[in-house]
Amino acid sequence: MKVLVIGRGGREHAIVRQFSKSPSVTKVFAAPGNDGMQEDAEIAAIDEMDFAGLADFAQQQGVDFSFVGPEQPLSEGIVDFFEAKGLRIFGPSKQAAQIEGSKAFAKELMEKYSIPTAGYETFTEVAPAIAFIRQHGAPIVIKADGLAAGKGVVVAVTEEEAVSAVNDMLEGQKFGESGSKVVIEEFLDGEEFSFMSFVQAGRIYPMVISQDHKRAFDGDRGPNTGGMGAYSPVPQISQEIVDETFTKIVEPAVQAMASEGTPFNGILYTGVILTKQGPKVIEFNARFGDPETQVVLPRMKSDFGLFMAAILSGKPAELEWDDQAVLGVVIAAEGYPETVEKGTPLPDLSKLSGVEVTHAGTKRLNGGYAGNGGRVLLVSASGPSIRGAQDKVYEQLDSLPWDGFFYRTDIGWRA
């Protein structure tokens, strides 16, 4: 089979690599891809928002199916566009992608179908939002309604921080249109985990769970980021809780979307927090998580290409998972998640051994690589335990100089 993976980040590199490992897949294309993906895919320089260009390419190359990585093209309707041309593509329709594209849509859906989540209110004006914050106190959570590349959430520890976040989003247009409406939620306390599922034609195929680390610095301090590292499995979350999450959250969400006339196909990412009242939804995404994908897909024992081809054809399929633990650490450019400098040379990555390097924001430079974004790489290892995988990764990372870059030294600490 020939497969086209749409996107350019670390998540897409992990998807590309998993397809390239599949005996059933003879050719993987990545569009637009990144320089570090070249070992695993043929790069096509077509922007992920150029739907016509991507569809033409898929037709010309005789691609069997396309797989969409990032949220933006999904929210803008790439799946509808491809399907209108008779092309097979995996992902949600524009209507169904609202489960991620609008926090308010997702909250209203959960409220209507009694899916457990945090209490909330939605605001488009500053004064009532601030009054709500003053009434409820801190800690409290402020979310931009639309897409903000994983950065549109502020967990405010003080009322002042919450007020500042509301002002930034509604008045300061920090996230443009995405922040013209905000959702303010009660703060939930507990252990978080990511529960991702393949969903197609009403069938749900859950993946093994993972946990990512959102804060920029050690000890879960600093600003929220798109994710600084992840690991799988999550030993502190029992199978009983995983099963409860499936029956009380994931299944009802898929059924709710169908009932609303917006059936969901694609990757349903459920961000879950285990509270004293049981598991509750923090957020839904309409695609793979980043960096969770980089630690979940390597645990897949099944042929990824065959699995995808089967579910896209409406045939029953099964997924097999490895018991090995996988832990990955993100290397980010100094200054991330704010403005970063591009073009800083990376150390010689060929000196890393016994680990897997997933490229997110890199560019070829003088036979090596340079940073070309906020999150640059993810370095991961597998082992019989989280601790074993963790030791392996950090031993390798500590052996190289990372001038101009930084990484957390405590990924996996909760396990």
Compact overview of the structure:
The chain is of the alpha+beta class and 415 residues long. The protein is built from twelve helices and 23 strands.
Relevant terms:
globular, 415 residues, five-stranded parallel β-sheet, single chain, alpha+beta
Main pleated-sheet profile: 6 strands, antiparallel
Q: How confident overall, as mean pLDDT?
A: 94
Helix content: 25-40%
What low-confidence regions span 5 or more consecutive residues with pLDDT below 50? none
What proportion strand?
25-35%
What is the rounded Rg?
20 Å
Look at the helices and sheets and give the structural class: alpha+beta
Amino-to-carboxy terminus distance: 39 Å
Regarding quaternary structure, what we see is: single chain
Number of DSSP E strands: 23
The rough form would be described as globular
- Helices, by number, come to 12
Q: Please, could you describe this protein's structure?
A:
With 415 residues, the chain is an alpha+beta fold. The protein is 29% helix and 28% strand. The protein has twelve helices and 23 strands. It has helices spanning 10-20, 51-61, 71-75, 78-84, 98-101, 103-112, 126-136, 159-171, 239-259, 292-296, 304-312, 386-397, and strands at 2-7, 27-32, 42-43, 65-68, 89-90, 120-123, 140-144, 153-156, 182-186, 191-200, 203-206, 211-212, 215-217, 221-224, 229-232, 266-275, 278-285, 325-333, 356-359, 362-365, 368-371, 375-383, 405-406. The strands form six sheets. Strands 12, 15, 18, 19, 22 and 23 form a six-stranded antiparallel β-sheet that branches. A five-stranded parallel β-sheet has the order 3-2-1-4-5, with helices on both faces. Strands 6-9-7-8 form a four-stranded antiparallel β-sheet, with helices on both faces. Strand 1, helix 1 (10-20) and strand 2 form a beta-alpha-beta unit. The radius of gyration is 20 Å and the shape is globular.
